Structure prediction request, 529 residues.
Amino acid sequence: MGDCRNGQKESAISGSSIQQLLLALGEPFVEVLTAPDGLDAEVRDVVILDPDDAPDSRAGDLVLVIGARGKAAAGHVRAAGKRGATAVAVKDAEPLRQTAADAGIALLDVRSEVRWEQLESLARNVVSAARGTADADAGEVLGDLFSLAQTIAALTGGSVSIEDTANRVLAYSRSSDEVDELRRLSILGRQGPEPYLKMLREWGVYQRLRSGEDVVHIDARPELGIKRRIAVGIHAGTQPLGTVWVQEGSHPLAEHADRALLGAARITALYLVQHRNTTSAGLRLRENLLAGVLDGRITGESVARQIGADPLRPAAVVAFLLRSTDRTRTEVELHRAEMISIISVHAASYRRSALVTPIGGRVYVLLPEVTDAATVTAMTRDAVAATRSHLGVSAQAGIGSVVAGLADVPVSRQEADRVLDAIAGRPEVDVAALADVRTQVLLSETLTLLADNPRIRDPRLDPLAGTDIGRSLLAYLDAFGDVRSAAAGLHVHPNTLRYRVRRACELSGLDLSDPDQRLVAQLQLRLTK
Prediction:
């Protein structure tokens, strides 16, 4: 058995479901023929079985039967089922439906042109990503490479594939759009048309992708069945890690596809580095760094050393919030994870050293070495617009002030939170800084102070709280005593409003000729309006 197990006890291993594998691989790789335990059955490991090997599968395995097709693989299917394997993959598997059903094992039919090593590599990526997600705290993992590829596809408007330096496909987006022969063959693990690949070499495309971060545009070649593409190299410093390719479909790529692709390549680099060495400065470390500096547990100097930024240059924090929807909790969590990916791409396109992390129900972005506040605002608006456009949900963002250096990041974070708190009840406002909503922020914080401290409230107003008389008095005060205007807003007759105001004064003992009493009443009545 060609088995690459990690020595963990089975009880400690978690993995992917068959459904996740199908969503990630699907066409043009495999088709499920039988699944006695359903598509939620867990796949914990991927193993290769050669016909000459003795059966050695374990519970939770996906067994790839190489060298035997159709009925010739029946014995291996029965053996894998007897040993508790979750699924078995066979080429020309149609005649084995009943055999697999009797053995109680899921049967995957592998397309005849698929290379086994390519299928093994991609299936392992899916299972490994699921393990990483299961081991992480809820909400702290941005997702696997397949979901990232899907995010890149949404932002660029094309079909995406992520390749390593050997041009092996690591992940790709699912697409119902037109797919050309080069993409199909690349995903299948077969070499693309040699005349086209030769042109790419002659044009220096591969050299440009390996040497820098420039987005490379490749024209369509209709005579070869090749559509237009853009691509960018994935790098860790000067070391190339791979390439992100975007194929144009039946519609032109998005207007800002180049910028989205650049940010996506930088985020992809973090995934690949983390995959190579889990102790390196990967996604979890960057998230923990940001969480620490936001609440002051980690110094700005320490963070600067980790991300390669100047701690004495200006920085800013932006807080994002996914607005409540009527969707299920699972859908909300999915949208939140996808929003984090979108925000990460936009932040990375602005600054390579940008940090992104979810805390509570919010997502925070630290932008070091800020050049000007206008650029921060533009990045934030782009991220919010992309969330609305690609996910169909609304997000809001509060922009903290640009502070002198990373040591003052907690100050910017507090301001971003204050702004977000102030606009949370105003769905018409999606992005704001303190200067935009200063009055609302101050009023909101004053009302919070009143709500939390009963001793500084006027008890005479308590009988009016939440009543029509109280709401009428507040409308009257907000309208500066203009009875007709306030009455119109309440949809009552002016005489009705006059009566209610008089009644409010009788019940509370207020003297509305006193400006101080008017001010206290106006503030306190806002707590229950």
Q: What stands out?
A: The radius of gyration is 30 Å. The first strand starts at residue 16 and ends at 17.
